[in-house]
Design brief:
heterotrimer; A mainly alpha (158); B alpha+beta (686); C alpha/beta (181); A: mainly alpha; Helicase, Ruva Protein, domain 3; 6 helices; B: 686 residues; alpha+beta; 4 domains; six-stranded antiparallel sheet
């Protein structure tokens, strides 16, 4: 009975200790993979075009540590990105933040492809519908003849 | 002394380039072939002279003549011989000389061909080549001269000059700065030259295109004349990019081979237009369609080549590939702008003459599908260009620096690549001119059915990622279609001519190099695609700190930290090298030695991974950090890169295919070709 | 020339294409121009900036008026910066009593914990603060750390040092020149 009380007390004390430690730290130390998952979407602010998760300089190691610290303090992924933008400017993000002028980079590629496709299909349909003005004789060189022959053979054989 | 010789050779070539342009122009103006012959001689002479110049620089590099500023800046005593020689392209000035040297070689080679049928084109080809060469030489002579010497005045100050200034003594530092550590890799011996070869050889088709535009020849002669040049240029460009990827994979420690770095893209963009060009010229040859388009593509390719060179050398972009800041940026810019404007102006003047000779007759015909192929390649080009240019636009227009990273390129171009794969499967089965859904369907159903079996197989193995399944299905489809094409052709030949199937297959390829070489290239592309799909969709990674004896697990492999040693090397590195035992399913495989080299001179670290490579995947182990001195624990990052080796294998197949397609045809054509067709490049349909 | 072209291509298409090309070239030209300009040079007006120090104090343009201001860009991960840290602090101790000289340390692309440790290690007392969003660094067109700009009482850049100061004398010589009249 007495030993149970002692062990209870011990457990309680341990609990308080752990709780206070956690309160100080804010949370468990994050796994490096969690840090890398975030660092991958950030660019090293001082090197050229190197994602933070693979950058080997001392400065990058500090930034990865910073991510770990922020995670420990309970920052969410988005809050960490925001923190990095506030500290080092929007160029740390792997893609431009979707706002204002930056919308262009998200809208232009599909727009260009769609417009091109539209243009192309119109051109093709026009082309096909109008009868050819002057259908030149199919140009033939000796090898073309052979190739044509081969093509015919192939077609005949299905 | 040797350097002086090199400089004078360089200067002479510059004067020759000026003279060549002038002589060719006079020849055109006065219709005097003698002047053009003289311009041709000037072009021919540029190569041996630039060879002397380049050899003089290589000689100085190998002998460590530190009196030359360039030599002192890119070599050092500790560098091995092969790196000293290849330091020719390790710095701005030397690489410009190398570029010019290659150009003079190609221009001379082109002058040696038989010009009798193309007298009118020749002077213009000379002018385009010599203007380009003259431009590069002027950059070297006036801004980035590799033959500048170091001099020391009485006060002890050191400066550079070509000739001995009054009262100054020659100066040579005890040791040079050495090559940028990133470049000290055997891959660097081949990557830049391959890329430059690709870049420079595109100048030749461009020169012919401009000549055709100026002289008003609207036929496809210029395309036929430069077809093999284009193929070879394209081969070098492809290989340059591939070898560069391999180098990045081995040296940069990213765990990958392609980072969508702006400069990578700059080398990739001419490849895109070049690939589109290779396909679309076939339509012009076969059907006389899209003449404007081909002109536009070759002009774009040429200017993208110069643009790529400009981006790396002007400081406009910061990148791992960037050369040191330089004053040649504005000149480069003017050159790009003026060549682009002049060529486009010429094109617009000939617009009417370049109308298509025939019309498209079927939406499923080969030419229509090739047009679609061009559309896709150009769309990818536009997306890449936007990605490169957008940060500049954003900074100028909003003052905000932004990064456009891999996610953008991958999401924007991914669907287009998939569409290209599909096209690669369908197009070879369609016929020129007329192809209906019916004929196409008849040809396609067998490979399509078998490829669907591949999908079932993938689903059975538990793969659920729709993107990966789509990609692998398309790869399987293209692979089957391509094999089917070989089989169909061989079988047709064997039954028609009574050859046995092996001989029929061999002769089929040999007699139709362009077509079947192209198909071999397609097979290579499929292998590359499979590799890319593997690493894009299934790459695994983890990181962990290990005490000695502890293990890190990933995808069935486990890595045991054994020890770490730190030592200095004679070439100025501090090396930290870890020893790691690699196991698969508790079976010892081998030891890996990931290391970090720290270069004292440049204060740069380099992470060299430990690699275990198999056909199905690579284990890519990177040393991230370690406990100093005691080395009781160390942090590793490990990637499992599935199928990545397929990329390199695909590259080899790709190269074989291009060589087959570009190989000169020596034997006479079997179907009693008229004599005038002999000795011309392979013109079988593709 | 253009009349002829409008005959050959649809004129709007041509105008659009040429305008697009011109726009692109202009974009690259502007960027090239700014890439070519390099670091701020002597005689240029110093850019205005506001820095919030690690202690929370705000240093704005009004604090700099009529003073000789030394702006030092540094970072805790920058090894060469350590070479000049002690000299900078000694110089600050020399000039602080005068009142017309101000030192400002701009901490470039750094993490706060390491930056504070660095300041403590070198016992630096002049105001230091993080360059939020790396704005000041770009305003000075700096190209690396350490870089130091000394601004005279008229608000012009009077001295630029790229790389670390070699000695205390080098700093005092640069500043004294601006104080004499």
């Amino acid at each position: 009975m007495k030993s149970l009380a002692v062990s209870l007390l011990l457990v309680l004390m341990l609990g308080i200790f752990v709780a206070s430690a956690a309160a100080q730290e804010g949370g468990p130390t994050p796994h490096p993979d969690e840090v890398n998952a975030i660092a991958r979407n950030l660019y090293c602010p001082v090197c050229a075009n190197v994602p933070l998760d693979v950058c080997g300089t001392a400065a990058c190691a500090q930034w990865r540590q910073q991510i770990a610290d922020l995670l420990t303090q309970g920052y969410t992924e988005q809050q960490i990105y925001d923190y990095f933008v506030q500290q080092y400017g929007p160029s740390v993000l792997a893609t431009p933040p979707a706002s204002g002028f930056n919308w262009l980079i998200y809208l232009l590629p599909p727009a260009v492809v769609l417009l091109g496709a539209l243009f192309l299909s119109r051109g093709l349909l026009n082309w096909k519908c109008k009868p050819a003005k002057r259908q030149l004789a199919h140009k033939k060189s000796a090898k073309d003849k052979y190739a044509q022959h081969l093509e015919d053979e192939l077609r005949a054989r299905r | 002394m040797v350097a002086d010789l090199g400089f004078f050779a360089l200067l002479t070539v510059f004067l020759l380039a000026l003279y060549g342009c002038a002589a060719a122009a006079i020849g055109i103006w006065r219709r005097q072939p003698a002047w053009i012959g003289s311009a041709r001689m000037a072009t021919l002479l540029s190569f041996p002279l630039l060879t002397i110049s380049a050899l003089a620089l290589i000689f100085s590099l190998i002998n460590l003549d530190f009196n030359l500023e360039y030599v002192a800046s890119v070599t050092s005593r500790s560098m091995p011989l092969y790196l000293r020689a290849t330091a020719l392209w390790g710095g701005q000035a030397g690489s410009l000389l190398f570029w010019s040297w290659l150009l003079s070689a190609f221009a001379s080679a082109v002058m040696l061909r038989d010009w009798r049928r193309d007298r009118d084109l020749q002077p213009w080809v000379i002018i385009v080549c010599m203007v380009t060469l003259g431009f590069f030489l002027s950059l070297i002579l006036f801004f980035e001269n590799p033959f500048l010497r170091l001099w020391q005045g009485v006060t002890g100050t050191v400066w550079t000059a070509l000739w001995q200034p009054a009262g100054a003594q020659p100066y040579a530092p005890i040791d040079g700065n050495g090559l940028n550590p990133l470049l000290r890799h055997p891959g660097m011996v081949v990557h830049p030259p391959l890329l430059y070869l690709g870049f420079v050889s595109f100048v030749i088709p461009f020169a012919f295109a401009i000549a055709a535009l100026v002289t008003g020849r609207s036929d496809d002669r210029w395309i036929r004349l430069t077809r093999r040049w284009t193929l070879v240029a394209w081969l070098f460009l492809s290989l340059g990019n591939l070898v560069g990827s391999r180098w990045a994979y081995d040296v940069l420690g990213w765990g990958g081979y392609w980072g969508w770095d702006p400069v990578e893209i700059a080398a990739f963009m001419p490849w895109l237009t070049g690939t589109a060009f290779l396909h679309s010229v076939m339509i012009q040859e076969k059907r006389g369609l899209f003449k404007h388009w081909n002109m536009l593509l070759i002009i774009l390719t040429y200017d993208l080549v110069i643009f790529g060179t400009f981006l790396t050398r002007s400081g406009v972009l910061s990148s791992v590939h960037a050369f040191a800041q330089s004053a040649i940026g504005p000149l480069f810019f003017l050159f790009i702008a003026s060549t682009l404007i002049v060529s486009l102006f010429l094109l617009s003047r000939r617009w009417q003459q370049l109308k298509s000779e025939t019309r498209m007759t079927s939406l499923l015909s080969r030419e229509a599908l090739f047009l679609l192929n061009n559309f896709l390649f150009v769309s990818i080009l536009v997306i890449c260009f936007l990605g490169v240019i957008f940060p500049l636009a954003s900074e100028i227009l909003t003052g905000q620096k932004v990064t456009v990273g891999p996610v953008y390129y991958e999401t924007a171009t991914g669907p287009l690549w998939a569409a290209l794969l599909l096209l690669m499967g369908v197009a070879p089965l369609s016929a020129w001119r007329a192809s209906t859904a019916r004929t196409l369907g008849r040809a396609i159903w067998k490979p399509l059915l078998i490829s669907l079996a591949v999908v079932l197989l993938l689903l059975a193995t538990g793969m659920r990622n729709p993107g990966a399944i789509l990609g692998l299905w398309l790869s399987a489809f293209v692979f089957l279609v391509t094999l089917y094409e070989f089989w169909r052709g061989a079988k047709a030949r064997s039954s028609n001519r009574g050859e046995n199937i092996v001989a029929a297959f061999w002769l089929l390829v040999v007699r139709n190099r362009r077509r079947y070489g192209g198909y071999i290239i397609h097979l290579g592309v499929v292998l590359i695609a499979i590799g890319v799909i593997g690493i894009e969709f299934f790459q695994l990674e983890t990181q962990g700190s290990l005490a000695v004896g502890e293990r890190l697990e990933l995808g069935g492999y486990s890595m045991e930290y054994v020890s770490l040693a730190e030592f200095q090397t004679a070439d100025g590195r501090l090396v930290d090298r870890a020893v790691v035992n690699l196991y698969k399913d508790d079976q010892f495989l081998r030891q890996l030695y990931p290391r970090r080299d720290f270069y004292f001179e440049s204060q740069q670290p380099m992470n060299i991974p430990g690699l275990y490579s198999t056909i199905e995947s690579d284990v890519y182990l990177r040393l991230v950090d370690w406990e100093p001195v005691s080395a009781q624990s160390a942090t590793f990052k490990v990637y499992l890169n599935p199928l990545v080796n397929w990329v390199w294998m695909g590259g080899i197949v790709f190269m074989v295919g291009t060589l087959v397609a570009a190989w000169p045809e020596r034997e006479t054509v079997e179907m009693a070709a008229p004599a005038r067709f002999r000795g011309r490049p392979a013109e079988a349909r593709g | 020339m253009f009349a002829k072209k409008s005959k050959t291509i649809s004129s709007w298409g041509a105008v659009f294409a040429w305008a697009f090309l011109a726009g692109l070239l202009a974009l690259v030209a502007i960027q090239l121009n700014s890439a070519q300009r390099g670091v701020l040079t002597r005689g240029e007006p110093a850019p205005e900036f506001t820095l919030t120090t690690f202690e929370g104090e705000v240093i704005g343009p009004e604090n700099l008026v009529g003073k000789v201001v030394l702006v030092n860009f540094w970072a805790s991960w920058c090894k060469p910066c350590e070479q000049e840290a002690a000299a900078l602090q000694s110089a600050w101790e020399l000039y602080e009593p005068r009142g017309d000289v101000l030192f400002v340390g701009v901490d470039y692309a750094d993490t706060q914990n390491e930056a504070l440790a660095y300041l403590k290690r070198f016992a630096i007392t002049y105001p230091n603060g993080p360059d939020l969003g790396i704005r000041i660094y770009y305003a000075f067109r700096a190209r690396g750390v350490p870089e130091t700009f000394i601004i005279n009482k008229l608000g012009e850049v009077a001295f630029v040092k790229i790389g670390p100061f070699e000695s205390l004398d080098e700093i005092t010589m640069a500043i004294d020149r601006l104080l004499e009249p």
